Amino acid sequence: MRFLKIVLLISILVGCKTKEESKEEQPTKQPNILFLAVDDLRPEIGAYGSEIAVTPNLDKFAADGLLFNNAYCQEPICSPSRASLMTGARPETINVIENFTYFREANPDIITLAQHFKNNGYETVHTGKIYHKQAWSDKGKSWSREPAYDKMTIKKSKVPGGYALKENQEFSKKATAEVIAKYGKNAPRNGLGKGPAYEKADVEDTFYEDGYNAELAIATMKDMLEKSPNKPFFLGMGMKKPHLNWMAPAKYWDLYNPDDIKLATLTEAPENGATMGLHPSFELRARYGIPKKGPINDDMARTLKHAYLACVSYIDAQIGKMINALDEAGLRDNTIIIIWSDHGFHLGDMGIWCKATNYEIATRVPLMIWTPDMLKETRGTKSNALVELVDMYPTLCELAGIEKPAHLEGYSFAPLLEDPNQAWKKAAFSQFPTPALREWAANPLSQGMRETYFGPLIEEVEGKIQKQMGDKWDRDLFENNLMGYAMRTENYRFIVWKDYTKKDSEPLFYELYDHQTDPGETKNIADDNPELVNQLLEQFNKGWKGNLPQ
């Protein structure tokens, strides 16, 4: 905000000078935006209190910027989360609640964050994953140019499954072939024919896609400086890791001693929690070599967490390279940098793996920002304010001095840069449809899934839900229309399960977790606290608008 005020003041002063004097001076350039996205990264970072993660670059960034302790995604899966934050609207508003809906087909005329900056004179470009799959490019809309592929001296690796090791390439091809032979050509749509979940290989950073895309982002930044030195840019750099599969160069694995890696301690489902609230870890189990049902033993769990941590450190290094390149180009003093993850991740917590639940571990994300003009006393601080990923769109508009589109459903957290401890939102909102009866793309379970090795596991999960829900059980409702809506307040997580196609329908189930006494969300206390449930339900029914700062 102070940066914007300074820009406006300079503009006024310039306007007061004579025409001759004005001709000799360049107009003040709007701030560049460096938009750094990470996939599947929970707050497993030193700056967030991780006792083991080796993340020197992210920690250094946090030490000079503002870190949000309580930032939440709007839906803990790739496409809905990214479509929401990039359009500035919530999942149900844009009708994107699973990975197969392309947000442009559902909202052809909506103006995205990058598109809005492009329309306001910015050069906009991205490398890596900003949107999800079919929306990655959004050509002709969000981006004003292509990355500088022609400036790259490094060739992009094109190997089966992205694996460096020959044996893993063969495992990947074999797994896909076996699934097609047994279940038909449609099975790979469900991701059933996957290779190994992890890989440690003695290769350069650029062998894997994130290292390549970091170098491409740097080359693109330099290309923009060369071709359009006076034009501000919006540069998105999307890191795919630590999304499965967890592949990272050996040097990042070697940062960790396996004996020091602690496993999740809260490994049971919440007491009295919703049986439909946890999934059977389908996404991980689809990988070669992972048990298709039953527990993940400690040895394997430690290896998997080691792999996840190696990828976190690998991504940390790529972000460090990008920020260092920005510094070396002399652009830091006129660039706003924001770092975010699209959702959290279970690493054995509550007994499951991967994202896609309405609990704290899947919805809470790392979010950090740095601006050139931050107050000295604000740098390196942490804000406990409740913020949401959908808030990034209006925030960046405000910081850049760009008018906000009318459709936005987020709330600018720019004022927190000046006073991180001021009173803020009363609640943050997330959602996810019946995790137990959805594939990991959040689409309803297909018949194909039921006919595969996951069939018995699905029947087991259904049995538990039917036992808990009794006469409330309805297959069509639970598979297709049941949504879990999570409201996170300062002290509580409140989850309302109801038919999302009927806004006025009565909730089928409540979950309530007291973060003052139970931050791990181990016990649902809704039945024991009916008055508190009614109070929170009243707050929930006010929606996001009714929980904004007064």
UniProtKB/TrEMBL annotation:
Keyword set includes Coiled coil: no
Keywords for this protein: Calcium, Hydrolase, Metal-binding, Signal
Family annotation (CDD domains): iduronate-2-sulfatase (cd16030)
Cellular component terms (Gene Ontology): cytoplasm
Keyword field contains Disulfide bond: no
InterPro entries for this protein: Alkaline_phosphatase_core_sf, IDS, Sulfatase_CS, Sulfatase_N
Signal peptide (residue range): none
Co-factor requirement: Ca(2+)
Domain Sulfatase N-terminal: from-to ranges: 31-402
Gene Ontology molecular function terms on file: iduronate-2-sulfatase activity; metal ion binding
PANTHER family assigned to the protein according to its UniProt record, in alphabetical order: IDURONATE 2-SULFATASE (PTHR45953:SF1)
Entry's family note: Belongs to the sulfatase family.
The name this protein goes by in its record: Sulfatase
UniProt organism field: Seonamhaeicola marinus
